[in-house]
Amino acid sequence: MTLSEGRRNNTGRRQLIVSGATGFIGQHLIPLLLDDHEVVAIARDEQKARSFAWYDKVRFISLDFHQDHLTFQPEAGAGLIHLAWQGLPNYKSLFHLEENLPRNYDFIKQLVKAGVSNVLVTGTCFEYGFQYGPIDATATPMPANPYALAKDNLRLYLGHLQAESSFKLQWARLFYMYGQGQNPKSILAQLDTAIANGDTVFNMSGGEQLRDYLPVEEVAQQLLDILKSNEAGVFNVCSGEAISIRRLVEERIKERGANIHLNLGYYPYPDYEPMAFWGINNKKTK
Fold it and tell me: Do residues 110 and 80 touch, judged by C-beta distance below 8 A?
């Protein structure tokens, strides 16, 4: 049974569970889902959830599935968008393999066994490892850090789970994003903080890395499009265009009308990602 074939509840809308609902993507995605779905939002911090306009329009479940048992019973044929993932941006931590991987797998498996028939999980462009240039969703994963390896293994685990439990799997590899609610350690968030503080200098790397960036609102829209496509497989969530980090920062400074000097080369280039890679969108692989 696919999500489109799932049983409608008495509101006439299909039930859709969203984990990590209060995270960077979830807070922007949930408003897009409300017209067509009865949303069950799952996150650890209910106080944070109450700060969003959508809180009163969803069924909220406060849950840390790393520690607590899920007692919620989904409707038959419900869908799941699994955004939750702890421990970022520490990509090299073994926590992703030792804790995140088994906990996330168990959580998704429990919901599938309880009747969820469509599962959309957000993966990461880091699953491609040190491949360079434009990368489409048919590229062979070559994860090179614990975070990427855990994500790729979760995808493989879920593939094996399909052998004993019938459900559709949509795997959405996220590239880079920015916008309201982003991690304060991300480069544009750090830049905005520096500008707000009146700093005259912004320390950064050489800035020559080529990356694929999207505003988080577009990321949310692409995830909705994948959900609505009813197609199983692996997808890239990306712009399809490369931009240098230096240009990204310079454009933000211009947009803000700020007077701040870039101290290029202050930080070394990250050793967990290639210098130049970006996504090819509208592609998937079975």
Answer: no
Token duo for residue 251? 């454009």
Which amino acid type is present at position 254? K
Pairing outcome for strands 79-82 and 14-19: parallel
Q: Which residue has the tokens 């982003």?
A: 182
pLDDT tens-place string over residues 262-283 = 999 999 999 999 999 999 986 4
Helix axes 146-161, 101-113, angle to 10 degrees: 20
141: cis peptide before it, omega within 30°?
A: no
The answer to whether the CB of 283 falls within 8 A of the CB of 137 is yes
pTM for this prediction: 0.91
Backbone angles phi, psi at 124, to 5 degrees: -145, 150
Q: Are the C-beta atoms of residues 81 and 120 closer than 8 Å to each other?
A: yes
Across 150-179, b (16+ Cβ under 10 Å) vs e yields bbbbbbebbeebeeeeebbbbbbbbbbbbb
Tell the residue number behind the tokens 């009146």, with chain if given: 198
Q: Looking at residue 13, what is its pLDDT?
A: 83
Rounded Cα distance between 276 and 283, Å, is 20
Complete DSSP assignment for the chain: --GGGSPP-TTSSEEEEEESTTSTTHHHHHHHHTTTEEEEEEES-HHHHHTSTTGGGSEEEE--TTTS-----PPTT-EEEE----STT-TT-THIIIIIHHHHHHHHHHHHHTT--EEEEEEEGGGG-S--EEE-TTSPP---SHHHHHHHHHHHHHHHHTTTS--EEEEEEE-EEESTT--TTSHHHHHHHHHHTT-SEEE------EE-EEEHHHHHHHHHHHHHHT--EEEEES-S--EEHHHHHHHHHHHHT---EEETTSSPPPSSS-SBEEE--S-EE-
